[in-house]
TrEMBL record:
CDD domains: AAA, R3H_AAA
Name of the featured protein: Single-stranded DNA-binding protein
UniProt xrefs under SUPFAM superfamilies: P-loop containing nucleoside triphosphate hydrolases, R3H domain
R3H domain segment(s): 517-581
Organism of origin: Brasilonema sennae CENA114
Length: 581
């Protein structure tokens, strides 16, 4: 990235003693803003800290001296420095006298939109969201330059506070060939937006800080005339716009709809639900969480519809590493073995790779490769007001480490096999993989998964999972229940492995894994009953009374032998009865 900030011009308007301190400051090049308040010590703010520049309070004379060196303050109490991007904002007392200044450094950073350059090329309208100071205006300025210089489009910037193209009549060179229309009064921004379309034939209009209902309506009018819009709005996520009645129209608007009895029954919802009112003004939304981490909703309409139905969307997460490479991942929601909704706040990079042996041949020859997994718990909560509260549900998340090195298998496929679990107990999956030494790694990233192992009951009720798997050509293997025998058979089917003999020692280790002495005695009792009586003699057997937890382990062991068992009797004498095949 190339950075141009003209920092010296901002320092020149400050009092002489503050200039000297900042010019020698070790963090001079990362200065964010300087704050001068009457009767208080001057303060310099940097990305990660703030510090005082002296012990002497700021005087009115110093503030007046700074005001003389900058441009005229407009109705929005903002001024600038000719041919720079710096912004000086004023704080006035009740009589209108300026008693405080915020001198913010404006930087033109070339190359900031590498993460979303492919989206800019599509010609779709893009909305940038983020908290103040995260770099929305900087990204907006760079998008305007790229569209004008690289794609040769007619770009018009609506520059209300001269923050995009700088102060003065001549626009800053950072916007390239783009044209800039200044706004005399902030409340007239929506009029200038319409004027730009009617008078100057733009292909792209760039707007900073859409904040009123009139500006939102003007943006919709422009979008419906076939002009690409690129704008910003304050708010961390799309949910913030949905809850903001002033700006909700940017994402299509929200309305309450009363359903008929049959439709409400079919949907399984109450009769009054929330739905999107119209197509969104902006087709793409970018949530700028951090300067190097953006969340991209490539279809705002689908995201809003998903949120209003009480589900979590699956947006892209784009990050930039230290080498400048862009990593595109996808945020997904899942369900754990207890049927609770889980959503991962972070996702792992999905490396681009060719479809090879696994998806081409449909089978894998297993290798005795051990792979370990680690997990970290994370959580996220979304809430809505009134009806919106009923549309959003809280969720907890889990992350899987999928950084295991992959090796080429005998058919040219990648090993270990990356499995995306859905509704299946992760701890039991790890136990089966570890004890049986299967070449399997659990992953939370559906884009990099080779197969999905899911509970049959959960897949039936999740059409979106089936649709995503079909689009990515990922096979779904279903099991009846989240038990050790079912998980073992499911993984063996995935790996195209034959079922072992009933006395396979490694299979038996699954049931003895981390078992207590009493549990081991109970499992040994069940094993001997099956192998010495039920199978060879074809006779049912009753075992000794056990606790519910131990009986559950015995049931799983019997299921491993493909036999049936029932519990009968009253506690504490409830026990297992095993039946022949």
């Amino acid at each position: 990235m190339t950075i141009k900030d003209d920092l010296q011009k901002l320092l020149d308007i400050l009092p002489q003693d503050l200039q000297q301190i900042l010019e020698k400051h070790p963090q001079r090049d990362s200065l964010v803003e300087v704050v001068l308040d009457l009767g208080r010590r001057p303060e310099a703010r940097f990305p990660n800290q703030a510090e005082y520049l002296g012990e002497t309070p700021v005087t009115q004379e110093q503030i007046d001296d700074c005001i003389k060196r900058v441009g005229t303050f407009g109705a929005d109490n903002r001024a600038g420095i000719e041919q720079t991007l710096h912004r000086i904002s004023a704080i006035r007392n009740r009589s209108g006298k300026i008693i405080g200044l915020t001198c913010r450094v404006g930087r033109a950073i070339f190359g900031t939109i590498g993460m979303i350059r492919d989206l800019v090329e599509t010609g779709k309208s893009i909305l940038m969201l983020g908290r103040p100071g995260v770099g929305k205006t900087t990204a907006l300025r760079e998008i305007a330059r790229v569209l004008a210089d690289d794609f040769h489009k007619r770009v018009v910037i609506i520059d209300t506070s001269n923050e995009i193209a700088g102060d003065g009549d001549v626009a800053h060179p950072a916007i390239g060939r783009s044209r800039r229309m200044q706004v005399a009064h902030p409340e007239q921004q929506h009029q200038v937006m319409i004027e730009a379309v009617e008078n100057h034939m733009p292909e792209v209009i760039v707007i900073d800080e859409i904040g009123t209902e009139l500006e939102a309506l003007a943006a919709r009018t422009i979008a419906e005339r076939g002009v690409q819009l690129v704008g910003t709005a304050h708010g961390n996520q799309i949910e913030n716009l949905i809850k903001n009645p002033t700006l909700a129209d940017l994402v299509g608007g929200i309305q309450a709809v009363t359903l008929g009895d049959d439709e409400a029954r079919r949907r399984g919802t109450q009769k009054t639900v929330l739905e999107r009112k119209a197509p969104p003004t902006f087709e793409i939304a970018v949530e700028m969480l951090e300067r190097q981490r953006w969340v991209v909703h490539d279809s705002v309409a689908d995201t809003v519809d998903t949120l209003l139905r009480g589900r979590q969307p699956s947006p892209q997460v784009r990050t930039v590493d230290d080498n400048g490479n862009v990593n595109v991942t996808r945020q997904l929601t899942a369900i754990n073995g207890r049927g609770q909704t889980l959503g991962g706040e972070e996702s792992f990079p999905a490396p681009a790779r060719q479809t090879n042996g696994w998806r081409a041949t449909g089978q894998m020859i297993p290798l005795p490769t051990l792979s370990g997994q680690q997990s970290q718990k994370s959580s996220g909560v979304s809430e809505f007001d009134r009806l919106l509260d009923e549309s959003f549900n809280g969720f907890d998340g889990f992350d899987f480490d999928s950084t295991t090195t992959r090796h080429a298998g005998p058919n040219g496929e990648d090993l270990p096999l990356h499995v995306y679990p859905y509704g299946v107990s992760r701890s039991q999956l790890e136990q089966v993989v570890g004890v049986l030494s299967l070449p399997v790694t659990l992953t939370k990233d559906l884009d990099s998964a080779d197969a999905i192992l899911a509970l049959r009951s959960h897949v039936k009720n999740h059409a979106k999972l089936r649709q995503m798997a079909r689009a990515r050509q990922i096979p779904i293997h279903m099991i009846k229940s989240s038990t050790l025998p079912q998980i073992t058979r499911g993984l063996r089917r995935l790996l195209n492995m034959d079922d072992p003999e009933v006395n396979d020692d490694r299979e038996m280790q699954l049931f003895l894994h981390s078992a207590s002495d009493d549990e081991m005695d109970a499992l040994e009792e069940a094993r001997l009953a099956v192998e010495q009586i039920v199978i060879p003699k074809g006779q049912p057997v009753e075992l000794l009374p056990r606790s519910p937890q131990v009986r559950k382990m015995q049931h799983e062991l019997v299921e491993h032998y493909r036999l049936k068992s029932n519990s009968f009797g009253e506690e504490p004498n409830r026990r297992l009865r095993i039946y022949p095949a």
